Amino acid sequence: MGRLFAVDAAAASSAAAAAALNGAVDWWKDVNDSPMWQDRIFHALAVLYGIVSVVALVQLIRIECRVPEYGWTTQKVFHFLNFIVNGVRAIVFVLRRNVQLIQPEILQHVVLDMPGLAFFTTYALLVLFWAEIYYQARAMSTDGLRPTFYWINGVVYAIQIILWLVLWWKPVRIMVILSKMFFAGVSLFAAFGFLLYGGR
C-alpha cells in the first residue's frame, strides 16, 4: 500500500511539474507572439543602450575637458566608440520594425552587424590598452601591439565584408549562419584577449 502511495505521489508530482513547465512555455509563447511585449522589450533595451551611450559621451567630454592637451588617447577613443556602438544599437532597437523592412535584405544584415563589429573594435582596443600596460610593466616592447590591433581589425572587417558580398550575391541561409558563426568566433577571440590581459 505504501509503495502504491509513493508511485501515485511521484506520478502526481511529475504531472504537476509538467503542467508548470507547460505553463512556463505557454507564457513565453504568449510574450514571444505579442507585438506589444516585443515593442516594450525592444524599447526598454533601446533606453538601456541609450543610457550607456550617454554615459560614455559624458565620460568622453569629461576627460577631454580635464586633459585636452593629450589629443585622442586610447581612453578617449574607447569612450567614443562606446558612445557610437551603444547609440547605434539604441537607434536600431527603436527602429527595429523599419530595419526589418529594409530592401535589399543584405542591408539589414549590414545595419544589424555593424554595431557588433564596432563593439569588437571597442573591446579589442580595451585589450590593447591592457596589453600595453602589461608589457610596459614588464619592461617589454609595445611596438608590435598597435600594428597587430590594426591588422586583426582589418582582417575581421575584410572577412565580414566578404561574407556580406557572398550573401548578397547568393542569399543562402547557410551563409547567414556562417556569418553569425564568424561573428561568434570573433567575440570569443575578444573574450580570450580579456582573459589573457585583463586577468593579469
Automatic annotation (TrEMBL):
The chain crosses the membrane at residues 41-65, 77-96, 116-137, 149-169, 175-197. It comes from the Eukaryota. Its main location: membrane. It is found in: Vacuole membrane. Keywords: Membrane, Transmembrane, Transmembrane helix. Pfam families: THH1_TOM1-3_dom (PF06454). GO terms for cellular component: vacuolar membrane. It is a multi-pass membrane protein. Residues 25-200 form the THH1/TOM1/TOM3 domain. Belongs to the plant tobamovirus multiplication TOM1 protein family. This is THH1/TOM1/TOM3 domain-containing protein. It comes from Triticum urartu (Red wild einkorn). The gene is LOC125512359.
